[in-house]
Amino acid sequence: MASATATPDTLPAWQMLSQHAQALKHVHLKNLFGDDPGRWQHFTRQVAGLTLDLSKQRWDDDTLEHLLALAQEAGVPGAIEALLSGKRVNVSENRPALHTALRLPADAHLEVEGEDIVGAVHDSLAQMERLVQRLHAGQWRGATGKPIRHVVNLGVGGSDLGPLMVTHALADYRPSDIHPVEVHFASTMDGSQLADYLSRFNPETTLFVLSSKSFTTIDTLSNANTARDWLIGRLTQHADLPEVSPHAKPISAELIVRQHFIGVSASPDKMSEWGIAPDHQLMFWEWVGGRYSLWGTIGLPIALVIGMENFRELLAGAHAMDSHFRDAPLEDNLPVLLGLAGIWNVNFLDIRAHSILPYDGRLEYFAAYLEQLEMESNGKSVTRQGQAVNYSTCPVLWGQLGPNAQHAFYQLLHQGTQPVVCDFIAPLKRYDEVENLDTRRHLKSQHRLALANCFAQSRVLMLGDDALEEDGPRPEHKRYRGNQPSSTVLLDKLTPATLGSLIALYEHKVFVQAVIWDINPFDQWGVELGKQIATDTQAIIDGEKSISRMDASSRGLIEAFWAAEQE
Ligand code: F6P
């Protein structure tokens, strides 16, 4: 980490990179390939079922040498050790960031503040496993005695995006020999997703997982209150329940909440206060950040979809990347190299747009997950010492399934005015398990089509017009500038283990960049103000506070709402 006074832009390697960039930024990517036939070998690394191709970044061997020197000067090796050993790297909240501890094997040892936490981590996994097994065995009964069929996760941000992304990515891994339980996600405070579920599901067989680290997030609590009142309203009026005898003894609200809610939080007192039964509470620690929390009890929905065996495979894959991150020399360290590519693009080539483009429909939520992981972690402008930065930090990051994005925003990537760096992600193998030979043949042909598009797009982004074989003059509106850098991550196959490695790769890439930018990736003070202002604004809308101090726009918007309410 940079020292108290020296910010990264004062480090010798940063100065060298600035000079180096003055020359290299005028060299087209196609020429870098022309000058180095061995470019693929130089800039591709493999570990934990992943292949990372960084050869289409706009850099050369000298660039990488200076970037590695920057990593050393910024203290990346020591910071990695501090992160993994549980030092209080989250400086503004004075706590460790130990998401990596959640995936340590049971025989590992990690003492944090005097306590060996590995035992507690595995006790927590065992408690989660017991709940999963009861639901998978059809033994978890609702208040009227029926087995649960639908589980709705109520959460937002890190209490939603990780489980949402992983359950979609690994839906192929649903165990076959279990009582069918469908998992759904409701996150938005406006109730849209929840309203749909309440209109379709039977309250007798619906269970809600109230996932919230703080247990104060209004998005989640408003969904939870609506769900609770729906359950109580429907389950205490037997008339709605034709199979329940009208003479059956009344079902208490306490029994309903007990049998139809599980809580997952770092705040057990708040879970109990809300009404979650103590033995239906799953805990996690304050030293697990929300956007880093899918590896523990927040991952309950994941385990419900893929089973605990596959959940443990996911953990093992992430742990393999953790071990690599700890042990590999910087020049062969995938998270370090991916992080340094980002530093080079943002701080020396001034490329501040970054697109995530998976070429596998199962990863449809991967970009959304990375939006929070990257931008909530590194969307900062104050150093760990509280100094305003005078260099760029996290780029604007967005994404979409690559094949679909080709029909959405690739026009901008190819012929727009914005430099954009892209991450292409694809599995090398797919559909080998499809039983019907004819269908398997078709699907494998579609997999080849997707890979061809993935590889072709990064090629055209790199080469521009030179990627086209036809020669001859073309009008300007049909010309391709190229020189857009990209990384390609190939998974041997999309499995729980390789997905775990992939997610951990990005977690650690984010950390490496934070170390170099000398910012804290583990807090998120910027979102607190928005929540506070929303509470004030709601009080004004509800007539509890005066509108007089509102700006003209806010006042106009609120008055428009009031007028609509009167219609
Ligand atoms: O967006 C702010 C934030 O605090 C995220 O960091 C977090 O993942 C999300 O809200 C939900 O918070 P909680 O899990 O405490 O409900």
From TrEMBL:
Q: Can the keyword Isomerase be found in this entry's annotation? A: yes
Does this UniProt record's set of keywords contain Iron? no
Keywords for the protein's UniProt record, in alphabetical order: Cytoplasm, Gluconeogenesis, Glycolysis, Isomerase
**Where is it located?**
Cytoplasm
Top class in the EC scheme: isomerase
Identify the SUPFAM superfamilies for this entry: SIS domain
Q: Could you tell me the Gene Ontology terms of the biological process aspect for this record?
A: gluconeogenesis; glucose 6-phosphate metabolic process; glycolytic process
Q: Name one GO molecular function term.
A: monosaccharide binding
Query: Where are the active-site residues found?
Result: 376, 407, 531
Q: Domain of life here?
A: Bacteria
What is the E.C. number?
5.3.1.9
The reactions it catalyses are: alpha-D-glucose 6-phosphate = beta-D-fructose 6-phosphate
Pathway the protein contributes to = Carbohydrate biosynthesis; gluconeogenesis; Carbohydrate degradation; glycolysis; D-glyceraldehyde 3-phosphate and glycerone phosphate from D-glucose: step 2/4
Q: What is its main location?
A: cytoplasm
Q: Which CDD domains match?
A: SIS_PGI_1 (cd05015), SIS_PGI_2 (cd05016)
> Record's GO cellular component, any one?
cytosol
Recorded family membership: Belongs to the GPI family.
What the protein does comes down to:
Catalyzes the reversible isomerization of glucose-6-phosphate to fructose-6-phosphate.
PANTHER family reported for this sequence: GLUCOSE-6-PHOSPHATE ISOMERASE
Question: Which protein is depicted?
Answer: Glucose-6-phosphate isomerase
